[in-house]
Give the backbone structure.
Amino acid sequence: MKRQILPLIAAIAALPTTAQAHRQWMLPSATVLSGDDVWVTVDAAVSNDLFYFEYQPVRLDGITAIAPDGSDVKIENGATGRYRSTFDVHLTQKGTYKIASVTGGIMGSYTLNGEQKRLPRGLSADKLAASIPAGATNVKLGEMASRNEIFVTVGPPTQTVLKSTGKGLELVPVTHPNDLISGEAATFAFTIDGKPAADIDVTVIPGGIRYRDTLGEIKLKTDAAGKVSVTWPNPGMYWLNATGTDNKTSAPNIAERRLNYVSTLEVLAP
């Protein structure tokens, strides 16, 4: 039976609104540390107010940590509660670590026997056809690639984990993400699949929005080289979000791929 393959207009169009209302984030206990037996504790959640627990946790099964030498690091003491997840990372090497949650894939819905059903999230292109039953109509498909990551440094900062993986929308720092000082400008470059991401929307919001009347957001757009410059108004934790779209989808019947990048950055006093 013929299936009508349409863009996932309703779900995709709702993503920017959802992203504004419910922001995903990871919050480290510190980003710049020293010593020989060092740990960092990370909270991970989705909430309306940044770094405040009131909506839902980020699941731990997709979170990974990478050591300064590029090796994988075990996530320890993980726990998921009603509003947040928390976990520890033992920082046994000197240098910069990356802790990340990377998600993506095809999503969508269809109608069968008059009832709307959703596809499993994160489908790959090779499993798409088998996931849509015969007789399904009003098939709506979209694709998403999302990256949520933080950086933590023990001792002198290093560069290995800052290199692009060549997949999706990524931050490739010019200014090291653990060397941010209030009143000083920092430069960040963004890439999509390893190439400069020009004309990408970037939003920076200081934490603590629950306790002030204004959001205090800084809105930026990348230049032709994929770069933006941010001058930090005050010390504290900041939420950075970059979004974009392209047509590099994994299935020919999907018109658009939505790209999302999130990081939490700590800005220190001079």
Summary: Residues 1-20 have pLDDT under 50 and may be disordered. The chain has one domain: 5-105+141-267. Helices lie at 9-21, 125-131.
